[in-house]
## 1
Amino acid sequence: MTATTSAKPPLSRRISTYLYQRPRLILLLLLAPPLIWLGVVYLGSLFALMIQSFFRLDSFTGQVVPDLTLQNYAQLFSEAHLGIMARTTIMAAVVTLFSIILAFPLAYFMARYASPRAKSWLYLLVLIPLWSSYLVRVFAWKLILAKEGVFTWFLNLLGLGGALDRVLAIPGIGGTSLSVSNLGMFIVFVYVWLPYMILPIQASLERVPRSLLEASADLGARPSHTFRTVILPLAMPGIVAGSIFTFSLTLGDFVVPYVIGDSSPFVGLAVYAYQGTSGNIPLAAALTVFPMIVMIIYLAVARKFGAFEAL
Amino acid sequence: MSTDAAPAIRLAGVSRHFGEVKALDQIDLEIADGEFFSMLGPSGSGKTTCLRLIAGFDRPTAGRVFILGVDVTTLPPYEREVNTVFQDYALFPHMTVGENVAYGLMIKKVPKAEREKRVAEMLDLVQLPLMAQRKPAQLSGGQRQRVALARALINHPRVLLLDEPLGALDLKLRQAMQIELKAIQQRVGITFIYVTHDQEEALTMSDRLAVFNLGHIEQIGSPAEVYEHPATPFAAGFVGVSNLVRGAVAQAITGSPETFSIRPEKIHFAEPAQAVEADSLSVNGRIRDVVYLGMHTRYLVELDGGSDLTVVQQNLHTTSMDVLAAKGRAVKLVWKREHMRHIEQG
């Protein structure tokens, strides 16, 4: 008799072999969950939002009526809404610009000069604020910026109390105290979004090899010229990525204007008010489309100026 | 002031220490105008550090650096009349080939028309015409290397520094580029300083070369001098393959315990009993290993008095069958006295 021990390999091995020979199947299995998530949850909710923005509210019953209409968008062009959108966009732009100015030197230091040890400490310092609730931190800032708060006390200590009062007297920026002013809101916005600017800029600078800077100097460029022609263009994708965060987060935020602001409405506050108290979801949805349009315009402009050429 | 008599590069007592580590220690070096000069050595020998000190990317901890007679020790790279071809090419990824090559001219504010003309000329020189609109990422390694060369040469530097520029290329392309680089150097007539760890490259291209080891220079000379008269055991071992014979074994062969070197290709086989002529030396041994390399064969011969010698023979009349059968055979190794070199022990 011949001993034919045709023992089958274990199941796990057969599955491995089966999958190894079908790379497309693995890809499908791996991609299905994120694609379903993106398709249904992200795009689905976005689609629901867009559709709602074309519905209308029956002013008599207070019910949403699914007739397709552009009247919500027409309402956006009222003076009040234009004011809200302009105010929000200017705030988002200033917050973004200032975040770039603050984040760039730190990101540059982290990418180019910090020792690995110092770098991990800096990462930690940048990220620690994100460990606690953003709402709590915004309320903390309310106390810091209050008239009797630490910030004003400190400025008085430096003898700058008068200067603060003069700044707060400027219409459009100031208010009765920092904690109820656009300036205060700006400070808090920059504080809460800064990490989202530092990290992408740092990542983009990390990918610029030192030899490129040496090559630029070698070819006769002074450091300022190297900055303009080599460092900045190569950091641009990171700056754009960071400003997408700071810009869109500011455009849509309602907590900071609610807690810190001087009660002048921002897009986020208005959306919150329309869908909540007045139940006008179609108008709220139309107002939400506005930040998306602003972002699309911003990205188109950035692209035109070559921000993505180094990607 | 720069004078015609001044050497292109002069290093006077230059050191670069990183804490305890002496990357370069007390280097004195003069490189003549128009020379093709190679800095040869293993990694960590200080050759690249030396190049970076000349380019200005790094400053010496002691000593002075002169370019064309001018002390540039404290000048930044952008104020030095040298240009560099980097090991990783360091092409700007967001610019086209044309913009990369024109970079130095842009900084000097050369008018656009002249800039474009010179870029076209340069790309012709490095045999990359019609490539100006491409991005570096679309080029092969060899093409990037040429762009890096064009970007440096377009500025008409007095000295061109090349940091292992052919290191990332495959053998065939490397050999072709060696010849091309040498031709370009002779055409433009400027000083080339070429850092490499490849001794063949250094021997092929250089007018003179310096052998670096552990932060100092072991020997400076023409390729023939360094190859035929290695000054130190390190130079003998690093430039080409060399047999070093020391102590008792040397005594048994030459009658003196002085260390000597003999190149593998200078040794011939003879029958063990055969007499040798007066101008030759010999030693008996047994072939322990045979490596067939196509054009030639490398034999490892164990000497009767201990120690090994490597012998290389061309396969002019032998086949692989013949040479492999030689393994284990007793032989006499013979070489002419004039081919061996006595070496001071370092």
## 2
Amino acid sequence: MHVPPVYPYVPPRELRSNGIARTQVAIVGAGPVGLACAIDLAQHGIDFIIIDDNNTVSAGSRAICWAKRTLEILDRLGCGDAVCARGVSWKVGKVFFRDKLAYQFDLLPEPSHKRPAFVNLQQYLLEEIMVERLRELDHIVRWKNKAIGLQQRGDGARLEVETPDGRYAIEAEYVIAADGARSAVRDILGLAWKGQVFRDRFLIADVSMQGDFPTERWFWFDPPFHSGGSALLHKQADDIWRIDLQLGWECDPDEEKKPEHVIDRIRAMLGPDRAFELEWVSVYTFQCARLERFVHGRVIFVGDAAHQVSPFGARGGNSGIQDADNLCWKLARIVRDESPASLVQTYDDERVEAADENILNSSRSTDFITPKSGASRMMRDAVLALSQQHPFARLLVNSGRLSTPTAHCAKALSTRDRDSFECALGPGAPAADAPVRVAGRTMSLLDRLGGRFDLVVFDTNDGKAGALQSEFGSDLRVACIAPAGKQGKDVLEDIEGLARHRYDADAGAVYLLRPDHHVAARWRAPSVADVRSALKCAQGMQ
Amino acid sequence: MTLDTETNIQQPDEFYQALIDAHAGLTDEQSAALNARLVLLLANQIGDLNTLRQAIAAARALI
């Protein structure tokens, strides 16, 4: 049984002084997304305060599947190893229709990527790891501090905070609202939430059992143990299994939540002889919706506070962490006066685009899992029936399109390709990983990149990398990728030739990467002026 | 590709009989399920999304 940590509430010193805390950035909410923002800002050396109205981690597993891109971000935030060591990695998914296996998929990872397609770790354990990482960086969350009011000002925002010992205010240049699906900040600002609520209810449970079920994602449509509904079984860390059962709109949620009912349903699913314990249970409905804009004056919405999706593609938690990844370097540049305030607008544009992509995928999954009409159900069942024998139909089966990162195509910060490349790493796309050797040590390319602007220069003998480094000084970090066997100061040996392959790069090719690993520009053989212009563009200075 | 609605079926009467025969003895619900599977199989044969969209629109236009 997971015993949630109780984090200490410390009466804020401002209660004793003038009642106002001043900081560059205030973060409301210490879930995975708020914590990711805090860690990222801490790594950037930005002054911030993070508050949470509770003093522990989330109840129940909630977000459990962390996608490769998110793991790469967690690596950059210094949490990746702990998450992967604690979590369960998986790649096989099975889809059953009635009593038969309809098909199975294998999220076969490309070899020589540091991180697998997915690692499952219950949200509360991720939060514990992130709180610990924040402590390593000498920051704490202000637990039991609740946002109860907010006023926008021209040059910042003032947050009213309530604690067990009274109230105080935080004055910040920016406020990040990371306070979840029922965001208090969103309510305070009275912002409308646009989208679609699905008329269906799901029972979600964490079950502790010593199962011999493999570490795979199992999804059932209309199974014998739960006729007419869908079911999901997925493994998490510490022998906890996640079970989702579709209940339908007509059910009585309070009745369904009663342990005797839940246990009956789970016993029907797992078989009469399986010993298990119920750790947590909830009945939920969901929506696919978002705020119209994520930036409102000096208040910026991230994660579930900004957008919500159905749970079937693991797109909630993953997109939230990706919001933080996109936002924090921009905010850091703005509060340090390195970029104009308009740079934050690109967070809005890019992450609204990502939210729409996630909402589209998640709405389609929901339409498949919960058909809205007789015809829709008929077609869905036809797809499932055909999928057992006919491969084409398997691609139509939609039990959740699992989270993939959004490429911010042709956006304000990208420089359009002048040269042609035969790979998907166009401007806006997240950079690809590859194993490299640095001073005799093998490591992941992505671990050498990020957190600042990087210029990845391929295999030049003419001292170009060194010249670019002296040209740009601290504005850019130059990484020189060379063929295996070629060593030197700051040279990354492309030991399997995969960097060259994945970036479709021959000698002289150059990639400019943003601090969040996304490609800003690439060339076959750029001039210094090309790089300078693309860098200015990516910094929001054009 | 453009949706071809000129004559393309080589033996129209044979095809039509095969189609109707396939429904023999089925309940309405079984027939609807058969039609749904048939639509999916034929759609895969066509493959091209634009053509499929034209076919969907042509069918819908008669309602």
